Amino acid sequence: MKLSFLILFFCYCTKLLMAQNIVPNASFEEVNICTEYIAPCAPCGWMAVAPEMIKMKYLCNGAALQGQHYVSLLQEGPVENPDSRVYIQTRLLCALQKGQAYKIRVYMNTENYPLRIGLRFDTAFIFSENAGCLSQSVSVELNEVDQQKKLWHTKMPWYILEKTYVAPNNATHLILGNFKAPIRKNGFSGYSNAQLLIDSISITPVNEQLPMCPDTAATRAALYAEHHRHTIPENLTPGRTVVHTLNGTHEGCDTLILKDDLFNQDHTTISERYKQQINEALKNYRGDTSMRIKLVGHAWQAASEEYNKIISYDKAKAVATFLVYNEGYSFDDFQISGEGKSNPRYDTSAGGGDNNRVEMILCHVTAPPVLIVKKPVPPPDTLVIPDILFKFNSSELNPALHTALDSLMKKIPGDGSVQLQVTGHTDNAGNDDYNYNLSLRRANAVATYMQQYGVGNDIRQISGAGESQPVADNKTPEGRRKNRRVEIIIFHTTD
Q1: Where is this region: Disordered (predicted)?
Q2: pLDDT higher than threshold 60 for residue 226
Q3: What's 16-232's CATH class?
Q4: Considering only CA atoms, which of 305, 320, 301 is closest in space to residue 358?
Q5: Per-residue pLDDT, 2
Q6: In which band, very low, low, confident or very high, does the pLDDT at 249 lie, cut at 50, 70 and 90?
Q7: CA atoms of 129 and 53, how far apart (whole Å)
Q8: Cα angle at 76 between 144 and 41, to 5 degrees?
């Protein structure tokens, strides 16, 4: 009897695993802290197709159907630029297999656009330096015909759309957005700034006997380890592009970032395999006699600062030498310098990486080349809502002390320049479950008050930590009082 039970239990669990959703962070609940601003800015595992131009709106304002978060995608831009789009993408936890059927379910909502969403399955990430309509075709579209159910939450309608899709080819990546060009009448589109809200998406194999991939956990870990969200993460692009163009980034001057792969091991000559990329990148500047070029070398080697300055200067000079003897420039056209390790552009936690580079800043004489000094992002601030502002052993705020709470609310900028995280905490009195639930209820109570006060639209995460993060000793009444609190963490951003 016991053996039969174990066999049935194993089969049941196996069936559940086989029907697992292959979309990572499918309801967008897990939050990514971006490298650029050290602040919550996107759902883990998901990236925008054109991150340097336009990004997804990642919202936590009580309107989500499930959990706290949902995303808003621009379906068509304003009247003057209706081709504008926001696409988001991820890598599937398990690849689609050719000929296999999959059930696609999307929870979505839109107020000013037809109820539809396009999905493209591909074999790699797609990135773009403009926010226009993608030229790639859609793999499958869900629309009003696929509506299964209409639900209401906070007076907002949410729709469940579902469709079965048979994969014509193997695929590893998923892109969501509007792949249709706008229909224009008299030069104008019928929609303007149309938004689509997505609360969650699931893709599950119809064949429940189809085994899950053995590297699912590794795929999720690799996706969650990527924290770059505001520029194209070049380690995810196919192949290796050694020239990256940033237009107008230095007061009207264009910048070409030449990566370290460009150079041979002697650091003084350029590899033949990449000369075509330089030629292509410079084609728009040829023949401009007013153009002046600043070449700034950067190095991030495990050596002294003086050595890095020498190496960075040598690489900048090697680029100038190449342009003089191959592109018809004169040495008088260049200002050459080497900055060593003094100005990293990329994340330095994993080593030098792309910080080994030469930046070619191209300017007209009317716009002198000036290096932009990055505006420092202030560290996060923390506002503490003490236990005294709540009724005893309750998540209900004390109305008699709203004046004190209002004074704290005034410290939160209301200009959209911050992102907020609300976390509740308790002392160690009571069991773990009770403390966790009390801390979460108190965090939600503060978040609700913030909404009513008018500073809640920038909340990105609401959570309870229970007794797990004390700030004082729980052995004393004073320490326990300090531990009973709600923290509002204010992340500043220039984005």
Answers
A1: 464-483
A2: yes
A3: mainly beta
A4: 320
A5: 40
A6: low
A7: 7
A8: 100
Q: Name residue, tokens 């959209």.
A: 416
Of 494, 493, 395, the closest CA to residue 447 belongs to 395
What architecture is domain 243-364? 2-Layer Sandwich (3.30)
Its sign, for the CA torsion 461, 466, 467, 472, is positive
Three-state SS sequence of the chain: CHHHHHHHHHHHHHHHHHCCCCCCCCCCCCEEECCCCCCEEEECCCEECCCCCCCCEEECCCCCCCCCCEEEEEEECCCCCCCCCCCEEEEEEEEECCCCEEEEEEEEECCCCCCCEEEEEECCCCCCCCCCCCCCCCCEEECHHHEEEEEEECCEEEEEEEEEEECCCCEEEEEEECCCCCCEECCEECCCCEEEEEEEEEEEECCCCCCCCCCHHHHHHHHHCCCCCCCCCHHHCCCCCCEEEEEEEECCEEEEEEEHHHECCCCCCECHHHHHHHHHHHCCCCCCCCEEEEEEEECCCCCCHHHHHHHHHHHHHHHHHHHHHHHCCCHHHEEEEECCCCCCCCCCCCCCHHHCEEEEEEEECCCCCCCCCCCCCCCCEEEEEEHHHECCCCCCECHHHHHHHHHHHCCCCCCCCEEEEEEEECCCCCCHHHHHHHHHHHHHHHHHHHHHHCCCCCEEEEEECCCCCCCCCCCCHHHHHHHCEEEEEEEECCC
State the Cα–Cα distance between residues 264 and 238, nearest whole angstrom: 22
Instruction: Classify each residue of 465-489 as buried b or exposed e, where b means 16 or more C-beta atoms within 10 Å of its C-beta.
Output: bbbeebeeeeeeeeebebbbbbbbb
Pairing of strands 117-122, 31-33: unpaired
Structure token pair of residue 80: 């003057």
Q: Which amino acid is at 185?
A: K
- Residue that the structure tokens 């209002």 belong to: 406
d(CA 470, CA 94): 40
Among residues 383, 355, 483, 374, the alpha carbon closest in space to that of 427 is found at: 483
Q: Give the model's pLDDT for residue 408.
A: 87
Class of domain 381-492: alpha beta
Q: Distances in Å between the alpha carbon of 78 and those of 48, 175, 230?
A: 19, 22, 22
**CATH 2.60.120.260 residue spans of the chain:** 16-232
Summarised one tens digit per residue, pLDDT across range 199-221 is: 999 999 999 888 878 899 999 99
Structure token pair of residue 169: 């080819």
